[in-house]
């Protein structure tokens, strides 16, 4: 066997091992961040329950000032929808699917580009004894094989978690700064 053939065999075995390892990764993912914000939940509620207000502090919206977004449905509440098209953050849509007024908002988050994905997002507001509110931002969904393979090289929690942290800091700045 020539050196070239040996190299090809080794590369093929390495590729098979990589694919086998990726197949064993979890079939679901979850990213979550929390932040205590020094205002009551009723001051935060309008900023998480209405998509236009959400986009004032949404870190992905801030990444591309030229984002092309369209709102449909009611201004807030179940059925409110936002679709975006951006060279920086991709193409997709989010829709409010459920709410527990003053406490939580659930959304369906669909990405079209740079890859297809269908995830769920939840914002939960938990009042604290000192009058502030703990805000939890969670995204979870199914990890198909491509997502599992990407996960071998890219840590989804770190990548999205940084953006969630930035978004929660943006929310804090708006809410505590009285710009709500």
UniProtKB/TrEMBL annotation:
Source organism, top-level taxon: Bacteria
Name used for this protein in its record: SRPBCC family protein
SUPFAM superfamilies noted in UniProt: Bet v1-like
